[in-house]
Amino acid sequence: MPLPSCWTQPLPSSDTQFSERARQRQQVLTKPRGSLGQLEDVAITLAGLQRTQQPQVDPVRIAVFAADHGVCAEGISAYPQEVTAQMIANFASGGAAISVLARELGASLEVVNLGTVGDVPPLTDVRDEQIAAGTANLATTDAMTPNQLEQALASGDKAAARAADDGCRLFMGGDMGIGNTTSATAIACALLEQSPENLAGPGTGLDAAGVSRKCEVIARALAKHGNNRDSLTVLASLGGFEIAALASAIMGSAARGIPVLVDGFIVSVAALVAVRQQPNLREWLLFAHRSAEPGHQAVLDALDARPLLDLGMRLGEGSGAAVAVPLLRSACALHNQMASFADAGVTDKEGN
């Protein structure tokens, strides 16, 4: 199975003519220049990416990818693995945080099951794209075979294609997988050349001893897999099916001209993998929030990212990105609907 074309073909670029027009418009709206801060930047960025003078983010697509992790055999999670399958059912029944937020936003939500230890019965609102019953134990072997990696990447790209076919203007990815903060931290350590002690956090709620155990497991994994810095090799060795799918969904969205609002730690690590493969992807990314997971700041720094929110969140599921959507909507409404000084008959600071 070949890689999706978005991983090997050039990505589209922002149109500087539209972003410059948006910047000029911001300078003549009835406000002091720069007074709306990042909201101005968001509108300018979206105008350039969407190649329009009227940027907007609706319709919004949220795709949550779920999978289990073999590294849970090392005792690195406060929750048992069957929670992954149970949460997939919770997503489908509308009881999860991201389900509530999607309803509040009027956003479309899809859930993709890539492989769980626990059984997941057929569910109307869950796409069954199971690759295996979770990854292998990254501390002792490659987490994914080459074929499994390609399947996960294909799944993410197909999610981006569905979003494009449905006319979505903003894509957000979410994650569910007990053990995935260990996997994401290991990837971040490998790509950023940092120690587990600098990046590992409590994940689902580990105590200090649990975090120490997680660090030890990640250190063993890094030693096992060597110093290769190729992003796809690192992803296969240390990643999860859902992390790989997220990376490809992010890349695939950009390839189809859809800006991406990046969630917290797990999704940011997936974005880092994708950006290392295609650096031009970075301009398609907006960052929703700063996670309470300690490794997130290092990933944000590596991506030169300034998130919109810092609420101490660490839930995953795409929840932090969903909370930030109203800010993007506000940025677009202000840009599109505010009067200029000339329109309103208001004197600007030059006395015009």
TrEMBL record:
Q: List the InterPro entries.
A: Nict_dMeBzImd_PRibTrfase, Nict_dMeBzImd_PRibTrfase_bact, Nict_dMeBzImd_PRibTrfase_N, Nict_dMeBzImd_PRibTrfase_sf
Is Heme set as a keyword in this record?
no
- Which Pfam family, any one of them, does this sequence belong to? DBI_PRT
- Any one Gene Ontology BP term: cobalamin biosynthetic process
Q: Which residues form the active site?
A: 317 (proton acceptor)
- Which reactions does this protein catalyse? 5,6-dimethylbenzimidazole + nicotinate beta-D-ribonucleotide = alpha-ribazole 5'-phosphate + nicotinate + H(+)
Q: Which one of the record's GO molecular function terms can you name? A: nicotinate-nucleotide-dimethylbenzimidazole phosphoribosyltransferase activity
Q: What is its EC number?
A: 2.4.2.21
**Per the record's keyword annotation, is Cell membrane included, yes or no?**
no
Keywords (A to Z) from UniProt = Cobalamin biosynthesis, Glycosyltransferase, Transferase
The UniProt similarity line reads:
Belongs to the CobT family.
Mind telling me what this protein is named?
Answer: Nicotinate-nucleotide--dimethylbenzimidazole phosphoribosyltransferase
Instruction: Tell me what organism the protein belongs to.
Output: Marinobacter algicola DG893
Gene encoding this polypeptide?
Answer: cobT
